[in-house]
Design a protein that fits this description.
231 residues, alpha+beta, Phosphorylase Kinase, domain 1, 2 domains, 6 strands
Amino acid sequence: MDRHLSACPPCRVAADSERAGRQILRSCADRLRSEPLPPGLRTRCEALAREHAAKTQAKSTGWRSLVPVTIVAILLVFTASTIFSLATRRSDALLAAQLTADHVKCFKLFDSPNAPSADARSTEQQLTNSYGWNVHVPPSSPQVGVQLVGARRCLYADGSIPHVMYHVNGEQVSLFMLEGVDRPPADVVSLGHRSHIWSSGGTTYVLVSSASTNQTAAIANYMKYVIQDAH
């Protein structure tokens, strides 16, 4: 595993993100234990446990002995997911780490240095048709060196969010949109990248870039201007 991580930047970033998440969960454990369970969590866990138990009963007696282990595993997964979701919503550092890992992964897998510019309206229509999202995508701007190259869906907490990808003066830049979330502005450095966080119109935007502070601020100002003008 260590050899693989030393030669695979996306996995190394993901591993660093996991370590950061665990550290934050440990530091917040006492407070998170007092958080009420989200509505429906117990029902979902019970339903999944029954489904796994039914499937297991159809197999041999040896497999039947694993039912309690399966139920415990399901509960642990859902509990960890819930705690991670709560922590992410409260911690700018954990939010930045998670989205930075997605930023690196998506550019590693889906980007090309010679990718053509994408049309903003077509990208918006793609997000609407594929995922039902009605979002405004800042277009390319040769004046400020911004080139829109596409958009994807990325997982966040217990759902998914739009991930819009750009090339900006040779840098890989991501704009994530968290609809229905309102967070105070923040500027966070995580996993070697800078995340600029702000909210507008009931949506939180996170700009992830490896660029310098000045360039990140300039890119963020362009994105903010376009998004506010659309509202």
